[in-house]
Structures are given as structure tokens and as C-alpha cells.
Amino acid sequence: MKTTVGAIAAMVEGRLLRGDEAHELTNFAALDQADASCVSFFGNAKYREQLERTRAGLVLVPAEVEVKADHAGALVAVANPILAFDQIVRAYGTLPPPFVVGISAAAYVDPEATVDPEVSIGPNASVLRGARIGKGTRIGAGAVVGEGAVIGQDCAIGPNVTICQGCLVGDRVILHPGVVVGADGFGFEFVEGRHRKIEQLGIVRIGDDVEIGASTTIDRARFGETVIGEGTKIDNQVQIGHNCLIGKHCIIVAQTGISGSTRIGDYVVLAAQCGVAGHLTIADRVTFGGRSGVISSIDEPGGTYFGYPARTLKEDRRDAMRVKQLGNLLKRVKDLESRLGHAEE
Amino acid sequence: MKTTVGAIAAMVEGRLLRGDEAHELTNFAALDQADASCVSFFGNAKYREQLERTRAGLVLVPAEVEVKADHAGALVAVANPILAFDQIVRAYGTLPPPFVVGISAAAYVDPEATVDPEVSIGPNASVLRGARIGKGTRIGAGAVVGEGAVIGQDCAIGPNVTICQGCLVGDRVILHPGVVVGADGFGFEFVEGRHRKIEQLGIVRIGDDVEIGASTTIDRARFGETVIGEGTKIDNQVQIGHNCLIGKHCIIVAQTGISGSTRIGDYVVLAAQCGVAGHLTIADRVTFGGRSGVISSIDEPGGTYFGYPARTLKEDRRDAMRVKQLGNLLKRVKDLESRLGHAEE
Amino acid sequence: MKTTVGAIAAMVEGRLLRGDEAHELTNFAALDQADASCVSFFGNAKYREQLERTRAGLVLVPAEVEVKADHAGALVAVANPILAFDQIVRAYGTLPPPFVVGISAAAYVDPEATVDPEVSIGPNASVLRGARIGKGTRIGAGAVVGEGAVIGQDCAIGPNVTICQGCLVGDRVILHPGVVVGADGFGFEFVEGRHRKIEQLGIVRIGDDVEIGASTTIDRARFGETVIGEGTKIDNQVQIGHNCLIGKHCIIVAQTGISGSTRIGDYVVLAAQCGVAGHLTIADRVTFGGRSGVISSIDEPGGTYFGYPARTLKEDRRDAMRVKQLGNLLKRVKDLESRLGHAEE
Question: Which residue out of A242, A249, A279, A342 is catalytically annotated?
Fold first, then answer.
């Protein structure tokens, strides 16, 4: 983007409280990351200190704000700084490419695939035999939709995604680049000194309104289905093992792994880099802090857990505190020993 | 699938002990995950309790089983429930697509590549100059076989896999979607304030009967070879650094990372999310629990290790127990202090 | 490779101190990994012990070296063993494929993309509308350059890489296979029981001379830019969240994750499997040991931190030592209790 303080003020119908209309702006940023080239906004009183210290070239502020006399950048008063900022971001930001109906001449669509007339299929994408793709769905360049896979309506399947044979994807699902849905689960029997493959003949079923981040992998079931419930959002580089049942409206943050056959309730939150062992059951609305290691089931809904093995915040802090106080404890024991030496004399 | 209790009983030549022949079945599941739409099986006495509580629409049971009078679903007695269940899964499950000899018209095979007449190469796959592909091998859609790479017989190279220049893949190897074999190792020299790249001129050699999970990455050697030994099975999102030598018949579970130049023996098991430092040697048949952090070599074969830094189960549990007992220890010291106060009076 | 002791000695103009000129050599390896088929080198006195025990078929040594009488393999004396070894590796190693100017007939380049005449674009690569690619840049097979993305000069974009719409890549950047640049950041608002997507309208900007390992993912900013500073080197399977600002000349090792809006200084080192929470600031030249969990900002430049939560090496070792000594502490308290029992009598 390339604009000016004056142009921004005009666009959001704001009032220039301070600053030079001709000052050039080329970027957006939060208050604490902004420099003189950036538009920023002050939308929440808890960032008051950041407002005082920001180097932003322009800050959108509420009309009633008071700012120090030596504030560096321009200030533009608006009714709602958050909405005004969104308006500018939307005007100047990098929007997703528009949906263009059509199948690229450089794509491969098998004659035995069933594709709605209103899809968008990018170059070098492959839609294999028996696959079905619903209306309004976009298949990115280089993506592969496997044999008999079914994708619903209004989905955005990113570039270089792989959806393997027979897997089912709901409506309005977003799969970011590099996602792999339906690779074989990891199952072997040890027979005569070798690991013999256990065939993985189930599928993955992804509910409506699910979003899955770049390079996340979700394994097909050994039999039956690995399920990602409606509305669940999964970040990048998450691994979900075969036969997992993930509930609805969960949040699973980056680099978390969930081992096979684990059942996660609805509205569960797993922060980044968690690990969940296999064959567990986690109740609804449970939250795990970053890096939690979950090695037993949790029956009670709604709790918050931390650490490895995962425990309540209270327990986690208590254990950490006790380790921290060990030096002090050692000193007290030494002191006791020395006093007891005296007492015994 | 869409079938009935009666049809399943007939297929496996079983005897209907209880239930409605017309009940509809659409899925498979383990006893604890099954609902009324599912076929399940009771093949191991240790799941007795699950049998009592299952909501499965049909359970395959051994002829001699005794079940509570109020058991909900159908029961079908067979000689071997595990084999009968496998038979049903195979009949109704999602089988891998059949091997069809031929090169897709939408694939690119370099004129200087050498490809056996009996291969299957999917659309938008790229087989580059000097590559060689053996009989019975399948190259998935969008996969890339780099310059001079050699792939043996009867391999299944998944969609969007990348095998980089010069790497060697044995026979009957399975690479799941998104695997990267032979990217450069991570090696730099710090010279005058900048990291200067150390060229990575070795390769990756993958032995026969290896299976590698989705989005796993195995780096080429700085010189010589990074080796994955025969029969080793690697799960999704594993990272193996340059010049590692992984032994035969190992199991490496998801999201584990092994740093450069480490040598892992045969039959080693690394559970999920382990980390192994570089330049270590791990003896044969060593097992590491999930999340182990391995920072020193292990010379003795056959042990089991846990935690960070990795230690024996006994040590790991003892340390955990001691931290748990810290509250009690603190109380005892307080008590001593108070008594000693008295004693001194 | 297939050569002999004599041929290697001649190539590096070395002097055969010991061994059979006709002995066959087929590989390279470090001293501790070499067998009789390998060329190796002794270039640093600290590997003296490895020299004594190596099974290498040929070792390049400095002229003045003294070796045990029963050393197994051939020894060839040269002025500088490191340089001589590099010469051999370069002659026999697997070099990157040569840069061949041209666009593969099997690639897709949008008519509205701007591509320098001197680029190399592999088969099944897709260069989408409005993308720009600079002179001397190589786009690997199956890679996708999104709408309006800009790539500088002399870059190596690996096979199956995805660069999403609008992202900016500097000069001499190396992206290894499977890298995803510019997928949406992970941002949602919880509204009436559902997670509503917050649009991610910023980009990723990658500085000059950056190298990024296989399957690493770098998310686009919510607004503005996610930045990877000049000269920074990132290993495989690293995750960098939206709006992160990574400084110049950093080293970020495999499987590390950095949460959104965190600002990392210059020359920061993150060893493997670290996790950094969101919205933190890390000062220049800070180093984190493997698996560090960073949950608060670090203002002081140049320190080294370990563990979770990350602390100084001194603190980390002290805490570990104290836990190790708990058994001893317990014994001392028991002893005190027993003595105090006596004292009270």
C-alpha cells in the first residue's frame, strides 16, 4: 500500500487531531510493532501504555482520547477505531484471490470424477477417479483429490494439499497448503523379527466449517472413521492419529500431536506443542496449556491442565514453586543439623 | 457401507445369538467407540468390560461367550471374531486404489529417465532427468522424483512426495504424501557475521520394506549417506538430520526429531515427540517413551528410557515421586524446626 | 562413487603413508562412521581418539601425524586434510542439478505473471497471476507461486513448495521442498458458540540470503507483515506464527515453534524443538538450548537459556541437581527426626 495520513483520515471519515496530512504510510501494524510508515489503532484501554510509546505514523483513536503533547505520529479520531482499522486493512491488505469458476487447462480431472459446474480448479491439480467436488469449492494448484474422495460445497482446498482415497470433507472447510488428509495410520504387528503392516481401510471424515493449518496430517482409520467434528479449528503441523474422534468447535494449536483412537470432546482447547497419548477420552470444554503431555483420560468437563503429566494449574504451579524453593529447604535442613549438633552437646 | 445384521451374519457364516436381522449397519468401530450403526468385535478377554458397555449395533463374539441379558445390540457368534471382523472390513472398507500400469498423460517423465514398463505414474507427477523407477512401483499424483534418484520395485510413492536428486530408495518402500527425502542438511559456518552454507553433497539411502509417514523429512548427508535401515517404520512429521544412520526394524513415532550424525541401532523404538541430540550412538533394542529427550549415548542394548534427560523408568518415577512428596518433606522440616525450637528452650 | 586408494592419493596430490593402492572406495564418512569402503579425514586434533579407532578405508591426515602401527586402513598425507576432503567430496558427491534456463513445457505460467527470461521453472510448477520471478531463480517441479507473489534473484525454490498470494521473497533465498510461506495465521473470535475466522490480510516478507528447511510453515500476518530477517537460517518443520518479526542472521533449528506476534532479535539461536509463546520480545544474540520453552520476554542481549520455563544454564543445572539430591535430603530429614526423637527424651 502507499497512501497518506490525509487519505486515510478521509477514507474513515475521521478527524485529524494532530500530524501532517502529507505523511506517507505504507504498512499496518499493532501499536507495539509499528514504525513511522504504519497505520495502527488504539481500540482497548489496556493498551494505553503502548499508545504512549508507539512510533506509528498514524493511530486511529476514539474521539475522547487524551494523548501526551509530544506524541510523535498523526492521530485520527473516529467513532470506532477497531472497525475503522478493519476498513483500511480490507482496502489495502492482501485479499485472497477471487473465486474464478473454471477448471484450469493445466489441471487433471479424471473422466470418472464428478465436479460441480461452479468449481475452481487450479493448474496442476489432480482430481482422481470417482472423486466428487461440490459447488463453490476451490481446489488449489498442485492439490490432489484422491480416488473416491468427496468434498462438499464452498471449500477452499489449498495448493499442494493431499486428500487421499475415500475421505470425506464437509462444507465450507478450509485446508491450508500441504495438509495431508487420509494417509495410512501407523499400525504394525511384530512377527518373526519384522514389523508387518496392518492395513488401514477406514477413512477420515471432516465436518462442516473445519479449518486445518499448513502441513497438518490426519491419518485414516484402521477401520471406520477418523473424525474431525464440525467447526473445529486446527493450526499448522498438527498430527492426528488413526481412529481419533475430535469433537466439535475444538481449537488445536500448532505442533500438537494426538495419538491413535483418542476421543476428544467438544470445545476442547489444546495449546501449542501438546501431546496426547492414545486410547484416551477427554471431556468437553477441557483446556490444555502449551506443551501439556496428556497421558490419562479426563472425565470432568471444563477444567484447565498444564505440564507433563498434565495436571491442574494449581498443582503445576505448586510443583514448580516447590522445586524453586528446594535451595531454601536445603538451607533449613543444614541449619537444623547444625542446631541439633548444639542441642546434642 | 450399508448393510444389515443378517447380511453380516451370513457373510461370516456366523450364528445370530440375539438381535434384529434387519438392523442397518453403516460403519465399523472398536467396542468403546461403536454406536448402533457399527459392527464391532470382541476378540480379547481383556476387553470384557467394553463388551458389557458397548453400544455397537453388532458384535462378533466367540461361540462360548456369555453376555448380560440386557445387552443392547446384535450378537453374532463365530469361530474367530478377529478374522471375521477383518473379512468384513476388507469387504466394506476403503481399499487402496488398484495398481494400474501406465504413465498418466498429465505426468512429466524426462526423456533421460529410466522407467520400467510396469510402473504406474499419476497425473502431475514429475520424474526428472536420470531418475530410475523399478517394476511395480507407483508414483502418486504431484510427486517429484529428482534428478538421478533411484527407486526400487513395488514401492508406493504417495502424492506430493519429493525425492531429491541422487537419493536411493529400496524395494517395497512406502512413502506417504508430503514426505521429503533428501533436502539439504542444516549446516553453516559463521564467518564475518554471516552464516555461510556448507554444501550438502551426500544422499539419503532408504532400505527395503521401509515405510515413512506423511510430511516426514529426511535430510541428505553432508557427504556420504543418511541411511534408513531395512524394515524400519517411521510415522508422520518425523525429522531426521543429515548423516544419521538409522538401523533396521526400528519404530519411530510421530513428531520425533533426530539430530545430525546420530547412529541408532536395530530394533530401536522411539515413541512420539522424542528428541535425540546429534552425534550420539544408541544401542540395539533400546526403547524410549514418548517425549523422551536423549542427550547422551546409550551403549547397553535393550533398556527402556523415559523423560528429559532420558533415564530408566525407575529413575524417572523416583524423581517424579520425590517432587510430588516435596510438600510432605517441607511439612516435616517445619515440624522439626518447631520441635527444635522447643528442645532449645 | 567407485575409486581406489591410489586414485584418491593422486587426485589430492597426497603421499601414501600406508595401505594398498588398489583398495576400493565407494563412500565418504566421518571417522566414527566410516567403514572399509569409506574415505575419511583427520582435520582436528580433538578427534585424535576417533583416528585411532576408525575403520575407514582411507584417512587423509596431516603430513606430521603419528599413527599406531596396527592402524587398519590406508593413510594419505596432505597439506590440509579438510580442503583435500572437500575436493574429493566435490568430485564424487551428488551436486545440485545444474541451473538450466527455461520454462518446462509441463509448467504453468499465467499470462499475467512476470518472469525474467533467465529463470528455470520445472515441470508441473504453477506460477499464478501477477507473480513476479527474478533473474537466476529456479522454481522446482510442482512448486506453486501464488497470485502476486514476488521472488527475487538467484533463489532456489524447491519442489512442492507453496508461496501464497502477495508474499515477498528476497534475493538468494533457498526454500527446501514442502515449505509453505503465507498460509493464513491462526486467528478466531468466539461468537455464539462458534469460532469465527479473523481474516488474515497481511503477507510474509523473507529477506535476502534466508534459507528455510523442508516442510517449515510461515504464516501470513493478520495485517502488515510476518518478517524473516536477512541471512536467517531455518531448519525443517519449524512453525512461525502470524505477525512474528524474526531478526537477521538467526538460527532456528528443526521442529521449533514460535507463536504469533513475537519479535526475535538479530543473531538469536533457537536449538531444536523449542517453543516460544506469543507476543514476546527476545533480545539480540540470545541462545536457547534444545527444547527450551520460552514464556516470557528476554530484554538482556547475549544470554543462554535452557529448560521450561527457559532459565539460565546455572539455574537449569541447579534445579536439576536439587531434584537429583532429593533422596539425600529426605535421608537427612529422617536422620534429624530420629536424632530429635532422642534429644527430646
Answer: A242
Does residue A176 fall inside a structural domain? yes
pLDDT of residue C216: 98
Residues C277 and C165 in one domain: yes
A286-327 pLDDT, tens digit each: 999 999 999 999 999 999 999 989 999 888 888 888 887 888
End-to-end alpha-carbon separation of chain B, Å? Answer: 84
How do residues B204-248 score in pLDDT, each as one tens digit?
A: 999 999 999 999 999 999 989 999 999 999 999 999 999 999 999
Q: Number of folded domains in chain A? A: 2
Answer yes or no: do A50 and A188 share one domain.
Answer: no
Q: Are residues B275 and B185 in the same domain?
A: yes
In a domain, residue A325? The reply is no
Which ipTM value was assigned to this complex?
A: 0.91
Residues C67 and C144 in one domain: no
Q: Which of residues 244-283 of A touch B (CB under 8 A)?
A: 245, 255, 257, 259, 261, 263, 275, 277
CATH of the domain at C220: 2.160.10.10
Residues B18 and B49 in one domain: yes
Please indicate, yes or no, whether residues C120 and C179 belong to a single structural domain of this protein: yes
Using 50, 70 and 90 to split pLDDT, how confident is the model at C327?
confident
Q: Which CATH number characterizes residue B15's domain?
A: 3.40.1390.10
Q: Could you say which residues from 56 to 95 on chain B have a Cβ atom under 8 Å away from some Cβ of chain A? A: 85, 89-90, 93-95
Residue C146 inside a domain? The answer is yes
pTM over 0.90: yes
Per-residue pLDDT of C19-40, as tens digits, reads 999 999 988 888 988 899 999 9
| Residue to test with chain C: of B150, B186, B326, most C Cβ within 10 A | B186
- Distance from the Cα of A97 to chain C's closest Cα (Å) equals 7
CB B135 within 8 A of CB B120: no
Chain C partners within 8 Å of B144 (Cβ): 122, 124, 140-142, 159-160, 177
Please answer yes or no on whether B183 and C93 come within 8 Å at the CB atom.
Answer: no
Q: What mean pLDDT is reported for chain C?
A: 93
Domain boundary residue, one of B33, B65, B92: B92
Find the domain containing A28 and state its range. Answer: 3-92
B189 lies in the same domain as B130: yes
Q: Looking at B71, B176, B242, B249, which residue is catalytic?
A: B242
pLDDT tens profile A178-198: 999 999 999 999 999 999 999
